Every structure is written in C-alpha cells, then in structure tokens.
Amino acid sequence: MDQYIIKGGKPLVGEVQIGGYKNAALGIIAAAIMADDTVLIENIPAVKDIDILLKAIEDIGAKVERINKHAVKINGSSINSVNVDFDYVRKIRGSYYLVGALLGKYRQANVALPGGCNIGSRPIDQHIKGFEALNAKVKIEHGLIKAQSENLKGAHIYFDGNSVGATINTMLAACLAEGTTILENSAKEPHVVDVANFLNSMGANIKGAGTDVIRIKGVPKLHGSEYVVIPDQIEAGTFMFAAAATNGDVLIKNVIPKHLEAFTAKLLEIGAVVEEFDDAIRVKAGGRLGSTHVKTLVYPGFLTDMQPQMTTLLSVSKGTSIVTESIFENRFKYVDELSRMGASIKVESNTAFIDGVDKLTGAVVSAPDLRGGAALVIAGLMAEGFTIVENVEYIERGYESFEYKMQQLGAVMEKVDSNDTKAIRKFKYKVG
Ligand code: EPU
Questions:
Q1: Which residue from 28, 60, 91, 327 has the fewest beta carbons nearer than 10 Å?
Q2: Ligand 1 atom closest to Cα of residue 122
Q3: Do 295 and 386 belong to one domain?
Q4: Which residues make Cβ contacts (< 8 Å) with residue 429, sequence separation at least 6?
Q5: Strand locations in 185-271 (E)
Q6: Ligand 1 pocket check: which of 21, 47, 122, 324 to mutate, most ligand atoms within 8 Å of Cβ?
Q7: Is there a single domain that holds both residue 341 and residue 204?
Q8: Closest atom of ligand 1 relative to the 187 alpha carbon
Q9: Can you tell me the distance from the alpha carbon of 267 to that of 279, in angstroms, rounded to the nearest whole number?
Q10: Is the pTM of this model over 0.85?
C-alpha cells in the first residue's frame, strides 16, 4: 500500500499539463469495440480505471494495442464473448458501458454489476429503463446485468433524472438499434458530448448531445476512426483549487476553459485571480480567500466531483461557507479526515457548514475515495507540518502522475510504501 507524505506550506507555482478525461475515455473505449475496424484513441489518461477497462475488453477477445502511454488501438472484430465477469471489473464504474456497447453490437451482454467509489447508493434503474425501452430484456442475476434483445428498436425515452451513465449507455445501444431513438432529459456533461462525437466519427448518427434532447438514428454498423479524448475538467479543476489553496500561481495547460466556468466563477467570487486563455487557465491567489455558498448540480452547474476540493479550500477561507451536495448522498466522508487536520466543518444531511479556520495542521489521514483523496492532498499542501495521506490507490484510479505533477509545481511530497518507515524518516530529514 502506498501513501503520500507531504510537507505543507509551499505555494504551487509553474505550469501543469492536463491529461485526457477519464470519464469520457471510459465511454469511448467501450464504444470502440462496437466497430469491427481498428480505432485509434489518443489522449487517454494513464490511470488505473482505464487499464482495467482495457483489460476487460481484451479478455473478451478485442485486440488492444498500446501505441504509447496515452494512445491505444482497439479492434473489436475478434470479440468472442459477451460475458464480462471478472473480479477486477467490479471495482470500476465505467465497466457498465460494456452493457450498452455489447447489447448494441451483439444484442446480448452479461456484465458484472459495477463498483466504483462509495459515494452513495448509485442505482442503475435509468440504464435499465433505457435498454428496456429499446426492446431489450434486462435482469440482474448472480451479480450480473444481463441484457438481450432479438430486435433492438429505437424508442422515445424520458429519463427520470439527468444521469451521465444512463445517457451514454442508452446512446451506445441505440446507435445500432433499428430506427430512431429520442433521449429526453438526458445529461449534458462534456463527456456525453465527447462520446457522441466519437460515435459519430465511427459513422453513428447522433444529434443534440450537450442539450437535454438527443436524437439517434440507428445505423447498421460502425466503422474505424481516429479520435482524441477531451481534456479532464476534474483534473484541471483540482489543480485550479490547489493553486488557489496554496496561494500559488499556476498555468494549467491543455484545458477547455468553457468546461471550467463553474469553478472559475467560484474562485473569482472568493477572491482568487483567474485568467482564461484559448486552451489554458491561470489561477493565482495571495492571502486568505473569502467564503461562499456552493451547491453541486448537473452540468453546467458546479460538478459534484469538485465538491471535496472546494470544501477543503473553504475550510481555511474567511467566514462561514455552506456546501450542499445534491447528486450523491455520501460524498462528505473526507470531512472527518479534514477535521483531524483542524478544519471546523459540520455536516448535516447533504450540507456542510464550514467555519473557516486560520490554518490546517498536518495529520495522518486516509483517502476515502478518488476525489475525497485528491482533496486531502490539497489539505496537506496547505497545512502546517507533515501530512500522510493513506490509500493513494483511490487517487491513482483517476489522476495520472499526481505526485509528480504536484512536485513539478514545487509541492514537497513523495509517494512511499506505507510499510517503509525508513522512507518516511528519510523524507522528513531531507525536507527539514
Ligand atoms: N442515478 C439514478 N439512476 C441511475 C443512474 C443514476 O438514480 O440509473 C442517479 C445517481 O444516484 C446520482 C445521479 O443520478 O444521484 C447522477 O448519476 P450519474 O449516472 O450521472 O453518475 P455516474 O454515471 O454513476 C459519473 C461519473 C462520476 C460522476 C458522475 C456525475 C463515470 C465513470 N463516473 O457517474 O465520476 O461523479 O457521473 O457527474 O463517468 C469520479 O470521477 O470521481 C466520479 C465519481
């Protein structure tokens, strides 16, 4: 088990390059197996969740050729099984996109129920609603989602809530269904648009992605394509907040500033300086920032995946802030850890009431999930003294070379084996 050891108190300064969007790449990799030609996908992030999905498609027979760390060629013509029931697949969320992809292409899919971060109950009823409307029979049996259809047909579907996962999954299957599908009340997130753009590059006919009505005309087959995944808005947002939290000055490169507007607005509101360029954004701060109220919402609202980083930043801001989580009911687990570092936060139901303290102090804390873990790293960078963040494997599921990118910005942190007490002593001795 690895952990990060951090000596806080140093502003982050310099430039950082943002990678491809994990949550878009997961949908795109699943979509890639729907063609029988080779597909080249570039700008995939080198993170654990992506490795797991690539291994899963390889294990059902797809050809997966790594061109380099960030590019892969996939050929789905050799798929010989629609059963995706591997232990490792249960650990990630994005594996559920294989249901839509396999159902669309082979009219049948048996995929292990997805895992992912424990941030709430995470039902899949809307995915099932989508598949059933397309004339598939779906059942949950022995830990598997089993979907099959003799005759996949387009349909008019009205989702009960905006779900990124259900929108993408239904869109995947509908691409190869007979006739037209209309998805209403669909999610508008950038990764829905990216997966739709990718499918269109493979010959699908999808219109309206990015609005709440998506129209899909089924086509008989998809062909090969070359595609570049969009930049990761959450990785970018995390570095934006880390820059502000440490009173730093960071140029965050390879981003789409439009996707970051909700974060930019909040940073400006509390007194940070944000400068937008065509494909970069600069964040700097000097002195203590102010308080605000934040509510997580679907896009273009404030993203739930940035809620822990925002709360952490506000834990040392002047005054009282309120953060309301409206997407996942269990996304405040990191708050107990922040409290160990001296934060004053009270969580009632889905709302955190934050009394900004003058400073955080280093402590041993444990990452409860991916984004909560990233937030604790930001806390460690702000805190006085040494912080140890345990369970970094959560963070590595979604952030590529996190400690390296932080180190390049001047962060005093290292990844060490938790059993290696010598390494911790050595680090403390080295950095004083
Ligand atoms: N929901 C339902 N029924 C469904 C599906 C969703 O009630 O069938 C509810 C959920 O419980 C939640 C809301 O709808 O309250 C939104 O869920 P959504 O389906 O949009 O989320 P997801 O597909 O499970 C993806 C990301 C999450 C991100 C959310 C929201 C992937 C693999 N995961 O999850 O990312 O928080 O969208 O944007 O794309 C992360 O990257 O750390 C992460 C958790």
A1: 91
A2: 11
A3: yes
A4: none
A5: 205-207, 213-217, 225-228, 249-253
A6: 122
A7: no
A8: 20
A9: 18
A10: yes
